[in-house]
Amino acid sequence: MLDLFDTNMQYFLIGDFNSRVGVTADFVEPDDNLFDILKNNNCQLRESIHVVDILRRLNIPLSRCSEDKGRPNSLGLKLINFCKDNGIFILNGRVDKDANCGKKTCKNASLIDYAIASPELFSYISEFEVFDFNPLFSDVHCRLHVLFDNCSNDVYNLNCNKQTQISTVRWVPGKVNQYIECVENYNEVIADLINEVERLDVKKPDFQTDLDNIVDKINSVFIDSAADTFGQTRKRCSNANTVEQPWFNSACNAKRKSFHAAKKKYNCIKNKEMHLCLRQASADYKKELDKAYKDYEFRTENIIRETTSNDPNKLETFK
């Protein structure tokens, strides 16, 4: 499985993992004595182990409950190792309404659908529940419900501008029958979509485009039905998402990540070696920024020269 660990990011994963884990621990209990005995000063490893303290401060139990009493399968063991390696935790059987049960999610026989999050996100999770199976949404899987609350403005304002944003109210379990009726009102649209599916030809070059269009139309049916049933809310976003400078490229981004990683290591272990690593990472980052900016200036100057020679009138619209 993919190694997600990045000291500057928090993660939230949700879906069908095909992994049976039972109540196997998804964390490593920290023991600093082992680091001293093994003379291991790996800062990232220390941090990934001590993240359990975040759950303790939030009064979230480290042990999980699970209705699935089967033995962990091979994918389950991989998922457990994945959580341990990256310092992330399973919500199922640990949070809110699922805290004391760990409800089964597939055919009422196994728990293979999970929500997994970085410990820093647990304080924002106000609701977590495994809903009863509904064939309207899946063939065999139960829906997982997660609600994030009290997030900072930086979280809410991603990709926002000063205009009002309209969003559909979250799912209301008591209105499931009204929602089904709204979906059924789109019978003609659904019938047309069925005909479009039957006319699909995998041999045509535009097959994928046609399929994507059908999926978009199906999504619209569900979203529009939700808006009609549950209503909509209006939110105002005032802070625009930060835009990178045009000369800031992927190489600059990589050096910035390396610098922040070195800085975090130094804050954890303040010795001469870590200080030298931090200084080197800082110098490399500045060097890459200077190089990217000079390259951008050089390209811009060439464009201006060519435009001046070939079509001076275009300089008025040059940015």
3D architecture notes:
This protein folds into 3 domains: 12-148, no CATH class; 175-230; 250-310. The model is unreliable at 152-162 (pLDDT under 50). The longest helix has 39 residues, at 272-310. α6 (176-184) crosses α8 (207-230) and α7 (187-199) packs antiparallel against α8 (207-230). Strands 1-3-2 form a 3-stranded antiparallel sheet, with no helix packed on it. It is mainly alpha-helical and 319 residues long. The protein has helices at residues 32-38, 43-50, 52-57, 74-86, 153-156, 176-184, 187-199, 207-230, 250-268, 272-310; strands at 12-16, 89-90, 113-117, 125-130, 144-148, 164-168, 232-236. InterPro entries: Endo/exonu/phosph_ase_sf. This is Endonuclease/exonuclease/phosphatase domain-containing protein.
